[in-house]
Write the structure tokens for this entry.
Amino acid sequence: MQGIGKGREMSLALALYLAVKIGLSAAKIGIGHIFGSLAVMSDGMHDITDVGYGVLIGVSVYMMMRPANYRHPFGRARLEYVMTGVVGVVILYAGLTVLAESVTRVLHTNTVPYEPILFAVLLVSIAVQIGLIIGLRYWYRRTRSEMMRALVADGFSDMMITVGVLAALGIEFTMGWQIDAYIGGLVALMLLVTGVRILHRGLDRLLGKRVSAAEERDILAFIASCPGVHGAHDLIVHDYGPGYKFMTCHIEVDSRNSFLEAHRIADEVERRIETEYDAQALVHMDPRNLSDPEAAVAENEVRRALAMLDPNWVAHDVYAVATKAGWDISFDVSVGDTPEDDAQIVRDIHHAVHRYHPEYRLLIRIDRHYLSYVPEATGEAEDS
């Protein structure tokens, strides 16, 4: 489901979510205030933060549906991540307020009078939240929206908090233990954790969090499976907000292809990425010498040397050309988070390769998280 249809489905889900949360928060805060139950009031405060989160998602959906323009070619959906930070601050403020009130109640014990309406409100709240979770799961299955998925998880956690408050009131009324303030403090801590988590998530997205390793492998495998592609690497997924994704990638093609054929392959890969992942794509072509068996042997020798140094190092953009003196071999090496200095890595690779093949002339680029570095050749490396 794409475009306007998906936006309408999400709007309906959000309308239900906001209506339920507003009703529950008003009922809990009102009844808790009247009968002096901090636990019930803090549970209502938690529902208010959910209302703010729902409004945030509603704004995001509205922005996501607006078309891109000249000034914002990738739309304005990243505003969601900015507003996430705002909502996180509001949640932290609510959590600190409830925590301060809980400490005051602990120092000055206040017995909560037994009132059946407190139990009735919480039981109705649990039933309503179960219905809300079922409804949100239905809309998640229809839209496959990560925002709907987050709301489902949020709804389940809210229900468990309410169950905890109900249990605390039951214990206090039946056994006489004054734990209302402690339960309020527990809910306040959950609010603080939620606020920190939301802030962290928003900052991660704004800073350009990398996709998971599993997702990256799946995308690269999909690209490498396209006709005419003999390898894929240097994948970058740019997240401009829900509905606005951009991918760049390098593909390896047979060096015997004409320029027109190589360009056709790249265009086909871009179209397949756009169809499969609903993302704009830009593909760069790297030639690979597949016609010369001796070049393949030279490539394998380089990969073998890398594997001896570190099995996690991966060579790509390997291109071997025969010369009168031997072979010119250029390649990139992805080294990840290795603590070694880039120049030292280059020296190590030279030593490992030249130990068996001194006739190889190497041009090496070091990749660390998509960044490439071309160290200056040193005399030690060249002479080894």
Remarks:
- The chain has three domains: 3-207, 213-288, 293-383.
- DSSP finds eleven helices and seven strands in the chain.
- Residues 3-35 form the longest helix (33 residues).
